[in-house]
Design brief:
Layout (H helix, E strand, L loop, with lengths): L13 H22 L1 E6 L11 H21 L5 E3 L2 H10 L1 H12 L3 E3 L14 H19 L5 E3 L10 H7 L4 E4 L14 E5 L5 E6 L11 H15 L5 E6 L5
Parallel strand pairs: 1-8, 2-3, 4-5, 5-7
Antiparallel strand pairs: 6-7
Helix pairs in contact: 2-4, 3-4
């Protein structure tokens, strides 16, 4: 809806016209902020091997997935996203009943499979063939065991990205890519938290940056939402939707 301004008289000078235009612009931005839909994305980041053993990371997957399933039962309006085919394979092998719960939630659209890769890997060191196989085996598992493939690439914890990634992702059937690093303080020339990333071959993919962190508790949400609003009003004033991630990962 366009903002409406009632003026007592028509602006008479260039200065008045500029002020009038500025007022309209501010009103338009404020209206866009009010009209924007904020998507709250439930997520629990899991590092299966980081500052603990593989066995501890293995148990973290089961504890996290169990908690997520319990929250979905407790709150019918809540949805959840999770990546990494390796996690799902562990659950399928060790706890088939839990895996069937996940399958049911996937079928009803409340457990969303993202990433399409076997794990969330480092992207600085692996070659292109390694990343292609991430998608080959990950998407194959999701298609065969869950009846669908991921549509959104998801690797928020990588500390860098190759320029060829758009081509690799699109070749794996992914339509968008969610990342977190580099943040604005690390790469100020990033255009906005939402943009079309073009690779050297001309392939484009919609890139979505997680603001500040992939985790957030109830104590963080109000402050985090205000930061998101300010950034969208500055960089993307006409965009009508934004995403805010919440949840607790790694214990």
């Amino acid at each position: 809806m366009e903002p409406v301004v009632h003026a007592a008289h028509e602006p008479r000078t260039q200065t008045d016209r500029e002020r009038h235009a500025d007022a309209l612009d501010r009103l338009a931005h404020a209206q866009a902020a009010r009209d924007r839909d904020w998507l709250f994305v439930g997520h629990a980041h899991i590092d299966p091997v980081w500052r603990w053993t593989k066995d501890e990371g293995y148990q973290e997957v089961f504890a996290t997935f169990r908690s997520a399933l319990d929250r979905l039962r407790e709150f019918p309006g809540v949805a959840f996203v999770a990546s990494s085919a390796q996690f799902y394979e562990w659950v399928a092998e060790e706890d088939p009943a839990m895996f069937e719960e996940i399958r049911a939630r996937v079928a009803e659209g409340r457990w969303n499979v993202v990433g399409g890769w076997w794990i969330e890997p480092d992207l600085n060191c692996p070659g292109g063939e390694s990343l292609v196989r991430q998608g080959l085996y990950g998407q194959r598992f999701f298609r065969e065991r869950l009846g669908r493939v991921a549509r959104v690439g998801f690797n928020p914890d990588s500390f860098g990205h190759p320029s060829t990634l758009p081509q690799i992702l699109r070749g794996q059937g992914l339509e968008a890519y969610v990342f977190m690093r580099p943040g604005p303080h690390e790469k100020p020339e990033l255009p906005a938290p939402l943009f079309r990333w073009e690779g050297p071959d001309g392939t484009r993919i919609l890139a979505i940056q997680i603001g500040e962190s992939y985790n957030a508790t109830e104590r963080d949400l109000e402050r985090r939402l205000q930061l998101h609003r300010e950034r969208f009003e500055k960089d993307l004033p006409t965009v009508r939707a934004g995403a805010l991630f919440y949840g607790v990962g790694n214990h």
